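User: structure tokens for this one?
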Amino acid sequence: MTHGPEAVAGIDIGGTTTQVILCAPDLDVVDRAEVATPAAEGGAAMVGAALDALRRLLRRTPARLLGVGVGAAGVVDSQAGRVLVASDSFTGWAGFPVTSTVERALGVPAFLDNDVNAFLRGEVTGGAVAGETHVLGMTLGTGVGGALWLDGALYAGPRGAAGEIGHVPGFGDLPCTCGGQGHLETLASGRSLAARYAERTGRAATAREIAGAARRGDPHAHAVYEAAGAGVARAILLVAGLLDIDTFVLGGGVSGAWPLLEPVLRKTLAAEPPVTGRPVRALPSRLGGDAVALGAAALARTRLTAAAR
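Assistant:
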């Protein structure tokens, strides 16, 4: 691992798959791999699968690895490099020392961030909102996550929860998976789309299947996506009014149905512009499945550059 051009790596450990990318120091992606995440086998197995994939990349594309960034689902302690809280999709993930495990295995510095923070960093670095200084990133997947980019840097807040728009109340009275009520996640996550569709039709379907039904003219499928889009637009308008932000980027599996979400988003945003009168832009992710891994690699590059000063 010590020969060849310099490189940084980015890892996205998701509940189903793990993405690994190898980047030149300017963050151009030179190679990538995707492997299944052994989420039921514990933290060591999950990080081990990512490391095995990265080692394969380094054998295929020899490089001198400078550092590794990791984006992980759940609440993380970036300073300590460990996962604090994880969903029930993972076994033995909460409390797992991610960065120290990677550092011992590879002998290079490792850095950890929440996957939504990494998503936004990736999109600001080289995606749909490249170069923007003030952005809210939202991921619409199994749940709804959010992250803030203010004055050209990620803003985590004093307890690391800034931008978590998915768990803000005021979006109806449905129970949320977190134990709250009326959160945006009850309308706009993949789980909630499936639940709302089942309530209407009595049929079980995934968010992807519901999107397909909507495209084929199913009025119930169209209605649940319209409600999701309206909820997301309202959340965007709240953030735009509070923080004077007019640029938003959306990622995650549900955002893959952008043609279903965009019409109601645009209509709602145009009907209620913020007090500044400046148009609000809501953009789909440009990086897709690479966003979190690229953001993690960008974090590694930033920290390594700062340490070298």
